[in-house]
Amino acid sequence: MADCEYQMLIRQIYRLFTISDTLESVIEEMAPIVGKAFRVNRLYILTLQPEGTFFEWTDGQTESVRESFEMEKYWTLRAKHRDLFDEDHLMRVHDIKTLPDDFRAFLEDLGVCSSIQCLIMGNDGELGLASLDRCDGPRRWTDGEAESLAHICWILAAATLRHEAVSKAAAAQVEVEKMAYYDPILKLPNRYKCETDLDQAGRRAVEYAEPSAVLMLDINNFHFINDVWGHAYGDLLLQNIVDFLKNWVEPDHLYRLANDEFVLLFAGTSDRQFRAFADKILQRFDESWDLGDQRQSVSVSLGAAYIPEHGTEGAILLQYVHVAIYQAKKQGGNALAFFSDEANREIRNKAAIETKMYSAVRDRCQEFRIFYQPIVESQSGRYTACEALLRWHNPETGFVMPGEFMPLAEQSGLIIPIGEWMLKEAARECKKWEAAGLPNVVSLNLSARQLFHGKTVSAIRDALDANGLQPSSLIVEITESLALKNFSILSTCLNQLREMGVRIAMDDFGVGFSSLANLSMLPLDIIKIDRSVTADVVNVGYKRAFIQTIIHLAHSLGLKVCIEGVETAEQCEWVMHMQSDYMQGYYFNKPVPNASFFDIPSIRLPGAVSLDE
Questions:
Q1: Residue 440 to residue 547: CA distance in whole angstroms
Q2: Under DSSP, is residue 189 helix (H, G, I), strand (E, B) or coil?
Q3: Which of 36, 41, 38 minimizes the C-alpha distance to 63?
Q4: Given pLDDT bands bounded at 50, 70 and 90, which one contains residue 487?
């Protein structure tokens, strides 16, 4: 090959690397140019990165060996006969008859008579091979041809390494995008991807009049499953739910926003179709989920918004379906709610309250107060205990009603630090009563979040020990609704408290109509009948019969009974003659900031009435 031909060949090869996108396309275009320039019958190039690939060019008269070339066998022979390659990694075979038998047989099977081969070398070893073959007889390869092939292989090596680096960078970019846009456990697009896709749906809705709907699904009380059964069960439940939801939307239109929150994008759907989808989802959650060795029932809350009716920006739409979720939760389990301005105002008000509550907790709960309401012994009229009730006075808004802030404290987890503060304060107050010779029994409500918090039992023990109080000085109240939903879960925590000597009361009994036989399986000491049952006890006969039945059954199980909501002398008379153990209500005293009512050892009870009236 003349110098001018060689220079032209190299320029052509370099030009290919500047205009072609991939290593494969460069080699495919380069092969015929090099083969013709070297005047050979066949040229083949092997690349080992990223995995073995065979490129071939023939002169049209020579058979292709692409399918029959045994790559592994070639590299075995190469390793065995390293001495055939010189220091430039070249092997010049003027006539294959001069080769060792096994190498000669290999090339003969390929129809090779004469060959010049050069290894494509990288910093860490072999990257591949380039071979120029004559299949019509021997040929003596010149030094110039050998140098030219070595230079071409050097270019190929540089291109292969560059391609490998680019491939690794591209793969790394894909991984980064997966980490940024996909949930690692369920392999679903996450919040950032969801917002991007909702933005696109908003643009399509405006530009092409293509309405869509976005649905958020929140699994109610999912943290209980993780806390009680473990994260393995929780993940299995989530996977089952995801597999079901994939039936209703495109695979890339199901997103995971949080541990128990999912979003579904229904593109180009009508209101009727969307509601049908939502109904089918709710119907599925009426059934239990198979988790292998058990079945688990869960309910969901669904929040929905329409695109473009409610918005076209992803972040705003997600905010709106969150608002709708709160409305769905207010309706109870398995409910669907749509975004509305009224709901938005309500949630903003709740957010403002929650922000102030965070500030109050950071300020060592100085805005909170404990009010006490007496519990009276029914037959003697003696004050025997009192219930501690939380009140909040914010400097800006004044007194915040418990119904406004307590549910938010539970949802946000602030009930944990607030509850610990309340426990310590009530224990200190109780110790003062004991020192003054007054009844020193205080009753405290514990929420679900507190009961399932791992440190609640130890916090109760520490508060009692710090003030030198006997465990019998504390009554812990749980609600009937809490027991109904988490019956089996409560036992461990309540039994630990019972072993300490703390008494357990069930508050609000009669609202959920639970079975006393079932509740006997919990370590209860006291049943507190809800004020809604007591309200019409004077005028409604069946309520009196209902209360008497509860008292009779409770006493047969060894439980005490406290009737709440006693507000008039007539109610008090009826309750006294129903043989309840304790009474509580405004008739005796409203909740007050201290237990000053204890200064009066007993109150004068009204006269008797006949149960036959």
A1: 28
A2: strand
A3: 41
A4: low
